Amino acid sequence: MPKKVVFCLGDGGNGEYYLALRPHLEAAGVEHEVLMDPKGAAKVLLEKRGIPFRLTEGKEDIDCKQYDHVLVGSGNKARDLIRNATENAQKAGVRVTWFCDIPHSGCEEAFRDLVPSSMAVFDGLTRDRLLKMKSALDESKIFVIGNPAFDNLPTLKKNHAVLRAAIFSSTGLRDLQDQLVVYFGSSSAQFDLVGESLEPQIEWVQKNPRVKYYCATHPADLKKDEVTALVATLGSQLITERFSNDDLTVAADMVVTDYSTLGIQSCLIGTPTVFLMGPSAQAYQEKERGAKYPVFPVLDLARGFIYQGKSYTPALGVWNIARITEALDKVLLDPDQWRLMRLAAQLPEFERMADGHAGERFIKNVL
User: Fold this and answer.
1) Beta carbons of 216 and 232 less than 8 angstroms apart
2) Best-predicted range by mean pLDDT among 106-110, 187-191, 302-306, 335-339?
């Protein structure tokens, strides 16, 4: 076990990953520091919890000699930090591990010339993809971990009925009559969130009086006020009470999201999910990350799920905004489609990705 490690964080996903690891690090007696890119959402998450970190954009050299292990999370905005930390760790002869969503977010295009000492990945498909693109990386140094941020999912799934009843009761919703749709927004700085994601959803909600809508904004969204004002037009169909994202993914009848880790979480819980990836989001993925369409391991795994001669996944991806309404109708208003999407999460492959032990595997195999 190393004496001292450093985590280099950027986006919200690896911020949640790190937060879930903290109890395991403390239990194992691992001293650690955090270097934080100021542009990412992870900064907001740690600030809310009063967790100390040192800000750096990674443009200056990072002294890695003081550490036994450098652990680098992802985040397109944190490219300089990822590259600097990796290169300086290697120059200092210090082990460097990449973790979180670098291997399957499109960020890999920016780092094809870098090969870390090891990688902690979400699932076997991500490992296989890495072996093809980084032939210099030893297969034994790619650890299939899952995501520690999902280690609470078994408990959430077990408490599904209780959590749903609590949210429905506190908001005045009727379980057999109302349908709860939760939208986890991405960042307006990256996508045309309002025009391509929100406006089509709001039009759809207004045409479906049984639907009650909850909008959770991105922690780093610079246009949060504009988003809030738009969803407020839903009036009585809008839920304004505050709930945790975890509870919402369990209680919802359907989750809608852009490019968000919460979408993968809702799939693993068994909540039917719709991913929106309109033109501006596609352009962002292609220009900034080198991948026109994001890769979601959950959707990859579900391609082999056959039921009565048909293949079903726990989520639908919508690339044409003109078809958003069609997708929402298909998931929420077709009881057979909705039921089969929930069944997808019961596959053994899905259960292994959310078995509650990713944090333990990280400490045992990566550190």
Assistant:
1) no
2) 335-339
Here the tokens at position 327 are 């997708």
Q: How far apart are CA 123 and CA 102, in angstroms?
A: 13
Per-residue tokens: 239: 């839920």
Contacts 24+ apart (CB under 8 A), 345-351: 345/267, 345/268, 345/269, 345/270, 345/314, 346/270, 347/301, 347/302, 347/305, 349/123, 349/301, 350/267, 350/268, 350/298, 350/301, 350/302, 350/314
Separation between Cα atoms, residue 311 and residue 169, nearest integer Å: 36
- Give the span between the Cα atoms of 50 and 330, in whole angstroms: 43
**What span, in angstroms and rounded, lies between the C-alpha atoms of 179 and 169?**
13
Model confidence at 185, pLDDT cuts 50, 70, 90, reads: confident
User: Torsions phi, psi of 176, nearest 5?
Assistant: -90, 0
Give the CA count within 13 Å in the CB-facing half-sphere of 304.
Answer: 8
**Is the Cβ–Cβ distance between 259 and 186 less than 8 Å?**
yes
pLDDT tens, residue by residue, 226-244: 888 888 899 989 998 889 9
Residues present in the chain in total: 367
Instruction: Please give the structure tokens belonging to residue 247.
Output: 């509870």
- What average pLDDT does range 34-41 have in this prediction? 85
Between the CA of residue 16 and those of 23, 179, 256, 266, 269, what are the distances in Å? 13, 28, 20, 15, 17
Q: Which residues of 172-194 are buried (b: 16+ CB within 10 A; e: fewer)?
A: ebeeeebbbbbbbbbbbebbbbb
Long-range contacts of 293-296 (CB under 8 A, 24+ apart): 293/317, 293/319, 294/104, 294/105, 294/106, 294/259, 295/104, 295/105, 295/106, 295/129, 296/104, 296/263, 296/264, 296/267
**Helices (H) and strands (E) in the chain — how many of each?**
16, 14
User: Sorting pLDDT into bands at 50, 70 and 90, what band is 193?
Assistant: confident
Please say whether the beta carbons of 97 and 116 come within 8 A: yes
Domains in the chain: ranges and CATH: 4-144 (3.40.50.2000), 153-353 (3.40.50.12580)
Instruction: Compute the distance between CA of residue 94 and CA of residue 69 in angstroms, rounded to an integer.
Output: 6
Sheet with 254-257: strands ordered across? 211-216, 179-184, 254-257, 273-276, 315-318
